Amino acid sequence: MKNTRAILMLLIALVAGVAAVVSASRWLVQQSSSAVKQVVVATVDLNLGQPLNGSQLRLVSWPSGSVPPGAFEDVKALEGRVVRTSLQRGEPVLDAKLAPVGTKGGLSAVINDGKRAITVRVNDVVGVAGFALPGNYVDVIVNTNEEAKTTQAGSISKIVLEKILVLAVAQQVSRDDTQPKVVNAVTLEVTPEQAEKLDVARSVGTLSLVLRNQMDVADINTGGATKGTLLGKAPEPAPVKVVTQTATRTVVKTRTVAAQPARSGNCIGVLAGMQGGIECF
Question: Would you call 186 exposed, middle or buried from its count of C-beta atoms within 10 A (0-12, 13-18, 19+)?
Fold first, then answer.
């Protein structure tokens, strides 16, 4: 009897333990499933302007408390979307890094609203020895002939555009490569007004690019550099135009005729040549 009771108690304890284990496992599964979300990430490195397809994406579990804003949970929702910034393998695909829906692939997809892309010809010197890479910012200097206002007028170099984004070098738009590349053309992102200014600048002189720190946003205003400022000479004052006026003076000559003494009788005036007189009778 005692053995039967002990066996019964053992069976009850065993059943209660199994039930506790099953309940705990179910609770853990529910907690783990609610603590993570499925997020779309890139399976390969993606360059800006590149359209997306299913072979480049996959779903991974991501802690729900750290899912970045704009993440996607459906791979099909990204079919055909264009990347406007480079993505690394395993990086979440965010809406802020994609061009608007319907945008076609290519460089035009990465141009910001209200901006334009213009290409300028460069060489190994003008192109900052190939260090002006996509994603960098540059200033544009033009060297031209100054208008002749003084005898020292000549060549002048002046910064005409500041903090211009480099979109592409040659046909490369990748922003991940840090190796310098000597190319013959650089594509810049400018406003319409800056595009007009840059087109005039390259028609009146030669252009040079000046690489600047990406965090430096300060505007500068220089007067330009000439041969005189380079050698430390003071600028020659502009010649003063002197206007002379000729005064005309009119001289009136008068002749005084001496009065004749008064005479008695009848008198008349007599004019003989240039001489005049009075005759009395």
Answer: buried
Q: Using CA of residue 177, residue 179, residue 185, residue 188, what is the dihedral sign?
A: positive
Taking the CA atoms of residue 195, residue 200, residue 202 and residue 204 in that order, the dihedral angle to the nearest 10 degrees is -170
10 Å Cβ neighbour count for 200? Answer: 13
pTM attached to this predicted model = 0.57
* Fold classification of 36-109 (topology level): Type Iii Antifreeze Protein Isoform Hplc 12 (3.90.1210)
Give the residue carrying structure tokens 């007189």. Answer: 277
Helix spans in the chain (H)? 2-35, 192-204, 227-230
Locate CATH 3.90.1210.10 in the chain: 36-109
CB 184 within 8 A of CB 120: no
CA distance 229 to 235: 8
Encode pLDDT of 80-113 as tens digits. Answer: 888 887 888 889 999 888 888 877 777 777 788 8
In tens, the pLDDT along 212-269 reads 887 887 888 888 888 777 787 765 665 555 555 555 555 545 455 455 555 555 666 6
Residue 35 has which token pair? 């603590």
Q: How far apart are CA 118 and CA 16, in angstroms?
A: 76
Q: Tell me if 110 sits within 8 A of 171, measured CB to CB.
A: no
CA-based end-to-end distance of the chain: 202
DSSP state of 261: P
Angle at alpha carbon of residue 115, lines to 118 and 44, rounded to 5°: 85
Instruction: Quickly count: other Cβ atoms within 10 Å of residue 46's Cβ.
Output: 23
80 Cβ contact partners less than 8 Å away, ≥ 6 residues apart: 51, 52, 53
